[in-house]
Amino acid sequence: MTMxxxxxxxxxxxxxxxxxxxxxxxxxxxxxxxxxxxxxxxFVLVYLGAVVILGLPIxxxxxxxGRTAHLSGAPAYxxxxxKGWSKLGYLGxxxxxxxxxxxxxxxxxxxxxxxxxxxxxxxxxxTPSSDAFGTFxxxxxxxxxxxxxxxxxxxAIVLRGVGRGIERATRVMMPILVVIMLYLVITAMFMPGRNxxxxxxxxxxxxxxxxxxxxxxxxxxxxxxxxxxxxxxAYGSYMKKSDSITHSAIWVVSVDTLFALLACVAMFTIxxxxxxxxxxxxxxxxxxxxxxxITLPQLFYTQMPGGVVLAPLFFILVAFAALSSTLxxxxxxxxxxxxxxxxxxxxxxMITGGIVFVGSIFAALSLGASDALxxxxxxxxxxxxxxxxxxxxxxxxxxxxAANWLLPVGGLGTTxxxxxxxxxxxxxxxxxxxxxxxxxxxxxxxxxxxAPVAIVALIIAVATGKDFS
Length: 469
Ligand code: PFF
Description:
Blueprint: H1 11-22, H2 25-37, H3 41-69, H4 73-81, H5 86-123, H6 132-137, H7 140-159, H8 163-188, H9 194-202, H10 212-224, H11 231-236, H12 245-273, H13 275-282, H14 291-303, H15 307-341, H16 345-364, H17 371-375, H18 384-388, H19 394-421, H20 424-431, H21 438-463
Helix pairs in contact: 1-8, 1-12, 1-15, 2-10, 2-12, 3-4, 3-9, 3-10, 3-12, 3-19, 3-21, 4-5, 5-7, 5-15, 5-16, 5-19, 7-15, 7-16, 8-12, 8-15, 9-12, 10-19, 12-13, 12-14, 14-15, 15-16, 19-21
The protein binds 4-fluoro-L-phenylalanine.
4-fluoro-L-phenylalanine (PFF) binds at residues 21-22, 24-27, 99, 223-224, 226, 229, 231, 325, 328-329.
């Protein structure tokens, strides 16, 4: 079914909405903790390389497909490439469902942190004990409840259609998030751990990075930039032909990367400035997975002027950053049923949302509430151990599956589609360029050779047992 597409209200519309999709828990939650686990510097450098060499060209490729087809997901690939290529859209929707099912659980933590900060703002801050976060994770009903709340918020918005609503909301919230983030970083700059944090993040010592870090960085680039499942195809489909794909992609990639780095600087500085926290994190007593939710309140309440107001506000914005990402995922998943089966949006959102929520329940209980779900692992099962590595627990397994397999394979599909299947003349005509120029050539050759070779190398590395989620 072909649909007439809306367009973004303004030139900034795409940039804001796409940045909203990209900036999320991947930047604020995942990037700092995997950077810590990989010992910083060298990992950050490899990540930046992956963003420039893979992320930027593939983002431009996805936007190109959406903008040209004026459709999202499978129908976009089908329109430009025929039925066979539409499988890329279905793979994307499946990846979106997998990511949503655990992303919702972590997004729910931001609601809890907001609530907790309200309590601290009114009743005074108490440093939580080192096992407080573990206890929270192990509370199954609480995890399911928070996940359900977030799922409902997401469904309520996707139900209305993402066009204008997302654009307006992101236009207000993204700048506030930038300002608070900068204020956090500036405050952190007055803390004693600053130099150690900078050294850890910005001086590369490749000897200290585990080999798997190379691969983990690439997976994170896909995840953080919302690539490999068609989110940017969907948002590109609302773009006007007069808007520049290159400029828009550069903006989104820069905003996303800046957020990730700032989050890292703030969190590392706090951890390295507070001796008890440093000892606990280094000894592995405080799981790095909860870094965002453990370390930042410490800064707000103990160091920051105005922290009592800013702490709850910050976690509302984290929830918002997560929501603007889950909206794009929800749209990718629901639109498959709308486009393919002709379902009403309401039916599509309710049914796909319900299925994803069932998956979320398993993820929510895999953090300690259910022993069976928390300890499930495939590390000794042939074939499955190749796919899931040494990960343990449903949430980690799903994250591994999405970052290691589904997104890179989806990204590879896009590089082949735009780089090899579509004809140069066609692309140039769509872009309104007469003759290929340097930027065009760089882009196309990245898509043709550099990106596919890097992704295939990555897939081979995973297939031979490397773990990088
Ligand atoms: N980019 C989001 C984040 O960093 O949190 C996660 C995400 C959103 C991945 C949308 C993929 C996607 F299509």
